[in-house]
Amino acid sequence: MKNILEIACFNLESCLIAQKAGAHRIELCENYKAGGVTPSQTLIVEAREQLQIDLFVMIRPRGGNFVYSVSEFNTMKEQITFCKKNNCNGIVFGILTPEHKVDIKRCEELVELAKPLPCTFHRAFDEIEDQEKALEDVINCGFKRILTSGKQKTALEGSSIIMDLIQKTNNRIQIVPSGGVRSGNISGLKKTGAKEFHSAAITDASETTDEVEIKNILSSF
Known about the structure:
Elements: E1 4-9, H1 12-21, E2 25-28, H2 41-50, E3 54-58, H3 70-85, E4 90-93, H4 104-114, E5 119-121, H5 131-141, E6 145-148, H6 159-169, E7 174-177, H7 186-190, E8 196-199, H8 211-219
Parallel strand pairs: 1-2, 1-8, 2-3, 3-4, 4-5, 5-6, 6-7
Helix pairs in contact: 1-8, 3-4, 4-5
């Protein structure tokens, strides 16, 4: 399997920059400061119309924790249905219980709703104490990927945990290093055994991805 670079994009301009630079996939969201929330329907449609590469969409109705009300959960279902109707290629979400465990029932329901689109469990995973059990829960729910920094601020700092998770998967799911992934540390992250990597590739105070940074990451592959 070749290495895959997914770029988190917070606006249409970044999507087009990432595609031009050679990224393999876009994770579309909005509100960088909140860590990403569901993009507007307008942005989803515009991105889908102008991108030839895969488009995964973040389904997160608000910033903050990952414990959702009935109303918020229903909103997530509506957003997934919209993404399916508009030819997106994947869905990214994560739901926890108040005890900071995988909300298996709700996650299974959304994974089923999203089919045939693959689902990624995002960095809500890093808020779970027992990650070994969480790994099995996420796999059993039907997710295809997990974004994680290994419970640390950056993926490089959590690289030993990421490596351990990858070994425990037995190729049942992709563990995708996420959090501070940059051209300067990609060689270290490759040592974990990961084959997919997630980066915003933002190098300034804006919400716009850096074309040169993407190319530099890819050149390290």
